[in-house]
Design a protein that fits this description.
Layout: H1 3-10, E1 18-28, E2 36-45, H2 46-58, E3 61-62, E4 68-69, E5 77-80, H3 91-96, H4 103-108, H5 110-120
Parallel strand pairs: 2-5
Antiparallel strand pairs: 1-2, 3-4
Amino acid sequence: MSIGDIKSLLGLFDSEETLPVGFHNPHAYRGYYHEAAVELAYDVKVSDMLADLDALLSQTFQGWKGGDYRYDDWTTLHIVTQEGRSGDVALVAMLCLGDQIPVRRWDEDERGLQLLKNFLHSD
């Protein structure tokens, strides 16, 4: 999913809500520097995750072997267990852990529902 897609999904939550599983530490993805990454984190406020996404859109990041990279809303975003690792953690698990899934809001927000369906059916 892209940075913009994740921003849209997080927009379904109250910005002051704390999710049991989320992300932090925005950086260049180790596998492909032109793609962005964040680290898995626990008990994270939605507003903090949105701030990390804004950082990805406004700052320049260094690739692991050099180079400067800037990202936009269409840049692929990876959620990794630790900076420097490649491989993704399931975003749906992050946003849907426990009773935190906003099922009612998915159904009321057609774009959110479509984003979730696209993610579940992506490779």
